[in-house]
TrEMBL record:
Stated family: Belongs to the DNA mismatch repair MutS family.
SMART domains assigned to the protein according to its UniProt record, in alphabetical order: MUTSac, MUTSd
Single GO MF annotation: damaged DNA binding
This protein's name: DNA mismatch repair protein MutS
C-alpha cells in the first residue's frame, strides 16, 4: 500500500524536525500523527484517534483547534518539549495538487515568547556551550530573544566555572557541541532541570561566521578567540533555524570576563537565597523579594541581574551609590519618578515582538504610550545632580519621531487581531477613509432597508441577517409567509420556523459593503505591516532607551528600600577590611516584628582578624549572622545601601559558603561527602580577596575525624602558605577555641546566652570570646522534646561527664577524696609534694632551653638548605595541650597551698598528662 499524498507530505516535513512535536495545519486544526500524537495525547490529555494514511494500519492521530493552540503549546514547552509549527505556505486557490506546507517556527523552552510562558520579571535565556573534551578552553554564549540581549565569554572554563555561569543566568535551554565531555554533561543533568540539545559541528562554518558579522553591529573580529566565535555562531545559527527570521533586535554582542563580577558559585547562590528560597524555590523570602520595588518589568529584570552579578570595580560601585543617594536625598523627585515609571510598559519585549513580526496593534499602542513618558522622565530627573542622571538628561533619546508616527497611524482603541481591521486611525490614509465610509454607509442603508421593508410588507417581525454562506438575507417567520411579496423576494433557504429571502437591491448593496470591508481589512493589514517594518528600523534606539529606563527603575527600587528600611550608604575599600557596625540581616529582619532583630558588629581583615571562630549552640543565630555578613557585602558591591549604622566594606572577588548539608542520594553521595566536596571547591578556588563562610565543617563524620579536618582547614586558611581569605567559621568543636593563642589571625567569638529562672535564653548577640558550652539539651527543649526526655538527657550527660573526668591513676588512687584522707595534716607529705613540684619546674625550664636551642639549629639548617619548606610541620593536639600543661605547672604557687590543695592539683596535672 502507498502513502496518501497528505501523509507523504507530513512525513517529509517531520524528517526535518525529528526532535520536535510537529503541529501539522489541516484546515482549522493542528494535527499530530504517529508517535507525536501518542506523546501529545498523553501530555495534553487529548483523545487519541486514527486516520487512514495508506498503510495497513491507521495512523494514530490527535488534534487541537488552531485558534487555541497557544495554551497547548505553552504546556508542552513548559514540560521541555519542542513544538514545530507547520503551516500552508501557498494560497489554496492557486495550488496545483496538494497545498504546500512547511515549518514556519520551532518553539523551544529557550525561544518561546508567549506572554503566558514568560515571567516578565525574569529573563528567559538560551545558552550555548562550546568546549572540546581534551581542553579546558571554551566559549559560552547566552541569548534572550524576548529582549534581544546577547552575552558571551571565553577562556579557561573548568566544570565548576561553567556550572557557576549556568547558576547565574538560569537558562531554560542549553545547546552543546558533540565533543563536550561526559562528566560536565552529567553534572548539568544532575544539578539542573534544563532542556538539553546536542548540535553538530555543521552549525560552525564560514557561512555561520559571516552571519555573526552581519548580525552584530559592534562585531570586532579581533576581540574574540576561536572557541568564543564557535559558541556565538552556533547559537545564532540555532536561533535562526528555530525562529525562521532575521532576529534584527539581537544586534549588540556584549562580551564579558567572569572576573568582571563578584563570583558566586552554585552552592553559595542557593545557600544565600539570592533570588529564590531553598525550601520552595519561591521569590518570597529571598534577597530579591526585599530589594525589588521596581515599577517596570524591565527594571525587575535589571535588578535581578545586579543581584546575580555584583560589581568588583570601585568606581562603578560608587557611581551607583551616588545615584541612589541622589534619590534618597530628593524624596519628592523620587516619588514623582516612581509614578512616571509605573506607566511604562515592557519596551524590551515589545521590541522583540516587532522583530519576530508577532506584535499586534494594541502592543504598538503600549509602545507608543511608553515612549510618550520618556520626556516626563527626563523632566523629573532634571534637579538631580549625580553624573548618571545628568548624563541621561543631556543625552537620552526621547524617540519623539516614533511616538508621532504611531500616534498618527494607529487607532486609539485598535483590535487585538491585525487581520480584523479597525487598527488604522481615520485621517492616516485616504483609501482607508473611503472604504470605511463605504462600509459604514452601506450598513446604515441596510439598517434603514429593514425598516422600509417592514412598512411595505406589514411584517413587523421581519429582520435582516447575515452569514458567511448566503451573505445578507431577509428572514420571515411561517406565520407571516402569506404577506411576502413573491415578485420581489427570492427564496434562498427554508427553515423549520420560517423562510429566508434576498432581493436584487440587497445583493447590490451587499456587494459594495462586503467588498469594501474585505478591501479595508486587507489594506489596514498592509499599512500595519509597513508601519511595523518602519518601527523595526529604529530597534537599536528603542533598546538603548529601554536599558536606561531599566537602570533608572532599579536605582529607584534600591532607593525606596533604603528609605523604607533605614539603610545606610557603606564606604567601599580595596584594603581587605570589612567593618560593620550594627549589621542586620536584610531578609530576616523583615520577617520579624519591628525593631526586634538583634544587630551585630563584624570586623574582618587579612591580618589579625582574618578568621572569626564562632562557637555557640544551634538555633542561637550563628548561621543567620554569617549569611548576614555575606549578604551585606554582596549588597554593598551591587552599589546598594545596606542595613547597618555604618560600614566599611572591602571589595571581594568571590563569596563561598558551606552552610547546611543534605544527602545527595540520587548520585550516591552522603552528607559528609557533599560537605567535603564543597569544602574542597572552596579551598581550591578561594583567594586572599575572597569571603568564606564555613558552618560546622566536619560534623558529618566521627568526632575526632571531624575535629581534625576542621582544625586542618583552619590552619590552611590562616597559614602564610595558605589562602588567608576573610573567613567566618562556625563550629561545635569547642577544642578549636584554643587556636586563637596558637595561630595568627584567629579571633574567638560566640553567641551570648543568658540563664533566666533555670531556662537558657539565646540573645542572638555575637560577642568576643569562645564558649565550651553546647546547650544542646536546651535547644531540644525549645524544639518541643518532652520534659521527661530532656530531664533524662541531663542525667546521662552528667554521668558521662563524670566518667570522662575521673580516670584512674597509675597507683590506683581513684578519687581526690581518698587522696585527701591520706595527706591531711601530714607535714612530711607536704614537704615531699613541694619538692616534687619544684623539681618538675626545674626540668620544664631545662626542657624549654633545650627546645629553643634545637629550634634555632633547625631554623639555621632550613635557611642553608632551602628557602621554603614544601610540607611545613602542622601543630597537633599534643602540641597545644602540652604547652598548656607546662604553662599550668609553671604558674603553680606551691608555698600558698595546703596539703589537700597540693595533692588535688598534682592529681589534676597527672590526669592531664595521661590524656595527652
Amino acid at each position: 500500500m502507498a502513502l496518501t499524498p497528505m501523509m507523504k507530505q507530513y512525513l517529509e516535513v517531520k524528517e526535518t524536525c525529528k526532535d520536535a512535536i510537529l503541529f501539522f495545519r489541516l484546515g482549522d486544526f493542528y494535527e499530530m500523527f504517529f508517535e507525536d500524537a501518542e506523546v501529545a495525547s498523553k501530555e495534553l490529555e487529548l483523545v487519541l484517534t486514527g486516520r487512514d494514511c495508506g498503510l495497513e494500519n491507521r495512523a494514530p492521530m490527535c488534534g487541537i483547534p488552531f485558534h487555541s493552540a497557544e495554551n497547548y503549546i505553552s504546556r508542552l514547552v513548559t514540560k521541555g518539549f519542542k513544538v514545530a509549527i507547520c503551516e500552508q505556505v501557498e494560497d489554496p486557490a492557486f495550488a496545483k495538487g496538494i497545498v504546500k506546507r512547511d515549518i514556519v517556527k520551532i518553539l523551544t523552552p529557550g525561544t518561546y515568547m508567549d506572554a503566558s510562558f514568560l515571567d516578565e520579571s525574569k529573563n528567559n535565556f538560551i545558552m550555548c556551550i562550546f568546549k572540546e573534551d581534551s581542553s579546558n578552553v571554551g566559549g559560552l554564549s547566552f541569548a534572550d530573544i524576548s529582549t534581544g540581549e546577547f552575552y558571551s565569554t571565553s577562556g579557561i572554563l573548568k566544570c565548576g566555572n561553567i556550572l557557576d555561569e549556568i547558576a547565574k543566568f538560569s537558562p531554560s535551554e542549553i545547546i552543546y557541541n558533540e565533543t563536550l565531555e561526559d562528566n560536565l554533561l552529567n553534572e548539568i543533568k544532575e544539578r539542573y532541570n534544563i532542556s538539553l540539545t546536542k548540535y553538530s559541528n555543521e552549525y560552525y562554518n564560514e557561512e555561520a561566521l559571516e552571519s555573526v558579522k552581519i548580525q552584530f553591529k559592534n562585531y570586532d573580529s579581533n576581540r574574540y578567540d576561536m572557541e568564543q566565535l564557535r559558541s556565538i555562531s552556533s547559537l545564532i545559527a540555532y536561533l535562526k533555524y528555530t525562529q525562521k527570521n532575521s532576529l534584527s533586535h539581537i544586534d549588540t554582542l556584549e562580551t564579558y570576563n567572569i572576573v568582571d563580577y563578584l563570583v558566586i558559585d552554585t552552592n553559595s547562590r542557593m545557600n544565600l537565597e539570592l533570588t529564590e528560597t531553598l525550601r520552595d524555590k519561591s521569590k518570597k523570602g529571598s534577597l530579591l523579594s526585599v530589594l525589588d520595588k521596581t515599577s517596570t518589568a524591565m527594571g525587575a529584570r535589571r535588578l535581578r541581574k545586579w543581584i546575580e552579578e555584583p560589581l568588583v570595580d570601585k568606581i562603578l560601585i560608587e557611581e551607583r551609590q551616588n545615584s541612589i543617594e541622589d534619590l534618597v536625598n530628593n524624596l519628592f523627585v523620587h516619588e514623582e519618578l516612581k509614578e512616571t515609571l509605573k506607566d511604562i510598559y515592557d519596551i524590551e519585549r515589545l521590541v522583540g515582538k516587532i522583530s519576530s513580526k508577532s506584535v499586534n496593534a494594541k502592543e504598538l499602542m503600549s509602545l507608543k504610550n511608553s515612549i510618550g513618558k520618556i520626556p516626563s522622565v527626563k523632566e523629573v530627573i532634571k534637579p538631580l545632580t549625580s553624573s548618571f542622571y545628568s548624563n541621561i538628561y543631556n543625552n537620552l533619546d526621547d524617540l519623539n519621531d516614533i511616538y508621532e508616527l504611531l500616534n498618527k497611524a494607529l487607532d486609539d482603541n485598535p483590535s487585538i487581531s491585525v487581520k480584523e481591521g479597525n487598527i488604522i486611525k481615520t485621517g492616516y490614509n485616504e483609501e482607508v477613509d473611503s472604504l470605511r465610509e463605504a462600509k459604514s454607509s452601506g450598513k446604515q442603508w441596510i439598517a434603514s432597508l429593514e425598516q422600509e421593508e417592514k412598512e411595505l410588507t406589514g411584517i413587523r417581525s421581519l429582520k435582516i441577517g447575515f452569514n458567511k454562506v448566503f451573505g445578507y438575507y431577509l428572514e420571515v417567520t411561517k406565520s407571516n409567509l402569506s404577506l411576502v411579496p413573491t415578485e420581489r423576494y427570492i427564496r434562498k433557504q427554508t427553515l423549520s420556523n420560517g423562510e429566508r429571502y434576498i432581493t436584487p437591491e440587497l445583493k447590490e448593496v451587499e456587494e459594495k459593503v462586503l467588498g469594501a470591508e474585505e478591501k479595508l481589512i486587507t489594506l489596514e493589514y498592509e499599512l500595519f505591516a509597513k508601519l511595523r517594518d518602519t518601527i523595526e528600523t529604529h530597534i537599536e534606539r528603542m533598546k538603548s532607551v529601554a536599558k536606561v529606563i531599566s537602570e533608572i527603575d532599579s536605582l529607584s527600587s534600591l532607593a525606596t528600600v533604603a528609605v523604607e528600611n533605614n539603610y545606610v550608604k557603606p564606604t567601599i575599600n580595596e584594603e581587605g577590611i570589612i567593618d560593620i557596625k550594627d549589621g542586620r540581616h536584610p531578609v530576616v529582619e523583615k520577617l520579624l516584628s519591628k525593631n526586634t532583630f538583634v544587630e551585630n558588629d563584624t570586623y574582618l581583615n587579612t591580618e589579625e582578624d582574618q578568621l572569626l571562630l564562632i562557637t555557640g549552640p544551634n538555633m542561637a543565630g550563628k548561621s543567620t549572622y554569617m549569611r548576614q555578613v555575606a549578604l551585606l557585602t554582596l549588597m554593598a558591591q551591587m552599589g546598594s545601601f545596606i542595613p547597618v549604622s555604618s560600614a566599611n566594606i572591602a571589595i571581594c572577588d568571590r563569596i563561598f559558603t558551606r552552610i547546611g548539608a543534605s544527602d545527595d542520594l540520587a548520585s550516591g553521595k552522603s552528607t559528609f561527602m557533599v560537605e567535603m566536596w564543597e569544602v574542597s571547591n572552596i579551598l581550591k578556588n578561594a583567594t586572599s580577596k575572597s569571603l568564606i563562610l564555613l558552618d560546622e565543617v566536619g560534623r558529618g563524620t566521627s568526632t575526632y575525624d571531624g575535629l581534625s579536618i576542621a582544625w586542618a582547614v583552619i590552619e590552611f586558611l590562616c597559614s602564610d602558605n595558605g589562602i588567608k581569605a576573610k573567613t567566618l567559621f562556625a563550629t561545635h568543636y569547642h577544642e578549636l577555641i584554643k587556636l586563637e593563642q596558637q595561630i595568627k589571625g584567629i579571633k574567638n567569638y560566640s553567641v551570648a546566652v543568658k540563664e533566666i529562672n533555670n531556662e537558657i535564653v539565646f540573645l542572638r548577640k555575637i560577642i568576643c570570646g569562645g564558649t565550651d558550652e553546647s546547650y544542646g539539651i536546651e535547644v531540644a527543649k525549645l524544639a518541643g522534646i518532652p520534659t521527661e526526655v530532656t530531664d533524662r538527657a541531663k542525667e546521662i550527660l552528667s554521668m558521662l561527664e563524670s566518667e570522662n573526668s575521673s580516670s584512674a591513676s597509675d597507683n590506683k588512687i581513684t578519687s581526690v577524696q581518698s587522696v585527701n584522707k591520706v595527706v591531711v595534716d601530714n607535714s612530711k607529705e607536704v614537704e615531699l609534694l613541694q619538692a616534687t613540684i619544684k623539681e618538675l619546674k626545674e626540668k620544664i625550664n631545662n626542657l624549654e632551653s633545650l627546645n629553643k636551642e634545637v629550634a634555632m639549629d633547625m631554623s639555621t639548617s632550613k635557611k642553608t638548605k632551602c628557602k621554603k619548606q614544601e610540607n611545613p610541620m602542622q601543630m597537633t593536639f599534643e602540641d597545644v595541650e602540652g604547652k598548656n600543661l607546662l604553662k599550668d605547672i609553671k604558674e603553680l604557687d606551691i608555698l600558698s597551698m595546703n596539703p589537700m590543695e597540693g595533692f588535688n592539683k598534682l592529681y589534676e596535672l597527672v590526669n592531664k598528662a595521661k590524656n595527652l
